[in-house]
Amino acid sequence: MKKEAIKKLAIAGIVAGLYLSLTLLFAPISFKAFQIRVSEALTLLPFIFPEAILGLFVGCFIANFFSPFGIIDVVFGSILTLLAAYLTYLLGKTKKPYLAPIPPILINGFGVSFYITLLSKSDTLSFTNFDLRMYLSVSLSIIIGEALATYLIGLPLLYALMRLPFLRRIKNEF
Predict the structure, then answer these.
(1) Would you call 68 exposed, middle or buried from its count of C-beta atoms within 10 A (0-12, 13-18, 19+)?
(2) What does the alpha-carbon distance between residue 111 and residue 95 come to, in Å, rounded to a whole number?
(3) How many domains does the chain have?
(4) pLDDT at 131
(5) DSSP for 46-87?
(6) How far apart (Å, rounded) are the C-alpha atoms in residues 150 and 158?
(7) Interhelix angle for 102-119 vs 132-147, to 10°?
(8) Cα(111)–Cα(87) distance, rounded to whole angstroms?
(9) Cys bridge to 73: 22, 77, 93, 101, which one at CB 3.0-4.6 A?
(10) 152 to each of 89, 120, 158, how far by Cα in Å?
(11) How far is the C-alpha of 141 from the C-alpha of 33, rounded, in Å?
């Protein structure tokens, strides 16, 4: 394996481990309809590190095995995180870090809340159980939690990382 590929895989592995660790460390607030998943602060990393996309996906995939929403959260939550991470990466081309939290906030706010709403009245996904008022309520609560994690923790972390000469040098090696 080439040196560059090993570095990228190492970054992805570190991000996955951090995401999983933070999710489980703060498990009481990481799951349910109202959540502040502190690990979501890391969803801004693809803005400067594309290899973080894979790490976020893997970290979320493993973390969601501990979710009360079961395999539905494992599959759909991970896919939504992958989509949000990729969109955050694309926003990196704008050179406007303050935009980086938008994909995780919107994708998780409206996506995760959709299946949480469906599962809240049954153990299976069923559109006959869909409650629009509940969906909007859950969406709002997840949007607030995502905004807190990404803007209050993630964005300062992103700005700090962007200023570190060591990390700028590593990024330029790829």
Answers:
(1) exposed
(2) 26
(3) 1
(4) 86
(5) GGT-TTHHHHHHHHHHHHGGGSTTHHHIIIIIHHHHHHHHHH
(6) 10
(7) 140
(8) 14
(9) 77
(10) 19, 29, 11
(11) 7
Residue type, position 76, single letter: F
Amino acid at 90: L
Closest alpha carbon to 105 in 89, 77, 84, 87: 84
Which range of residues forms the domain containing residue 40?
3-173
CA distances from 123 to 23, 55, 133, 159 (A): 23, 29, 19, 41
Round to the nearest angstrom and report the end-to-end CA distance of the chain: 14
Identify the pLDDT of residue 128: 75
For every one of its 174 residues, what pLDDT tens digit does the chain have, with 9 covering 90 and above?
798 899 999 999 999 999 999 999 999 888 876 789 999 999 999 999 999 999 999 999 999 999 998 999 999 999 999 999 999 999 999 999 999 999 999 999 999 999 988 888 766 666 776 889 999 999 999 999 999 999 999 999 999 999 988 766 545 443
Q: What pLDDT is recorded for position 65?
A: 96
Q: What is the DSSP letter of 34?
A: S
